[in-house]
Design brief:
- With about 220 residues, the chain is of the alpha/beta class.
- It contains 7 helices and 6 strands.
- The protein has a 6-stranded mixed beta sheet.
- Helix 2 links the parallel strand 1 and strand 2.
- The longest helix is centred in the middle third of the chain and has 17 residues.
- It starts with a helix and ends in a 49-residue tail after the last helix.
- About 35% of the residues are buried.
């Protein structure tokens, strides 16, 4: 499928999911696919809330790029923050990203996001199947249950896009990328848990020292 066809499919899906007037949001880490998605979605819904997980551990480059893109696109940016500051968490628990990364992600990513998502009915994500083996079966539209039982529609318009598709789209639109990609990073999250990829063909293999591939925000509540 040509990129033009992928774009048309994504646009049709986005428009269809917005058509019923449900409360919708889009999450963005400001990695390449997230920026492509935000660009697509905001063309049809300029005021849609763009949720960013401000963990306190991001690279300085990520914060600067977030602000740059937010200003350029005039985004309705919503920064979701954890219950405790980095200093408060480290004072109580130490460096959880070293000793218990799942707990750290739970405190700083999962809990804030799920709390934020409870205000919405439709959730647009930049997930793609070729990002990781854990995402190989990703569907464009899936139900998603929050811990409290609330159901959302989780929409991944770029599910079938390749990395090349994403980069070609951004180039086509004249959108620069997060500078950290120039240093060889292929998946960028919190600074302490982000390294260069350690496994060919698995762009997320540099996350969490290779101990895991997901932070938990895309895992269904039991």
């Amino acid at each position: 499928m040509q990129l033009s066809e992928r774009i048309a499919h994504a646009e049709e899906l986005i428009q269809a999911q917005l058509a019923d007037g449900s409360r919708a949001c889009v999450t963005s880490s400001f990695q390449t696919e997230c920026v492509a998605l935000v660009h697509l979605v905001t063309r049809f819904s300029p005021e849609i809330p763009v949720l960013f997980l401000d963990t306190g551990y991001h690279f300085n480059e990520t914060y600067a790029y977030r602000d740059q893109i937010s200003e350029r696109f005039s985004l309705n940016l919503v920064n979701l923050t954890p219950a405790k500051t980095v200093a408060a968490q480290e004072a109580e628990h130490g460096l959880l990203y070293q000793t218990a990364p799942d707990r750290c992600c739970g405190f700083r990513k999962v809990e804030p996001l799920f709390a934020g998502l409870s205000n919405y009915e439709t959730w647009f994500t930049g997930l793609r199947r070729d990002q990781s083996p854990t995402r190989a079966n990703l569907q464009h539209v899936e139900p998603f249950k929050l811990p409290g039982g609330q159901m959302l529609r989780k929409i991944s318009p770029l599910a079938a896009w390749s990395t090349k598709d994403v980069w070609d789209y951004l180039k086509q639109q004249g959108i620069g990328v997060l500078p950290l990609y120039d240093a060889g990073y292929t998946s960028i999250g919190c600074q302490p848990c982000t390294a260069l990829p350690i496994e060919d063909g698995n762009p997320r293999s540099g996350r969490w020292n290779g101990k895991k591939l997901e932070c938990g925000i895309h895992i269904q509540a039991e």
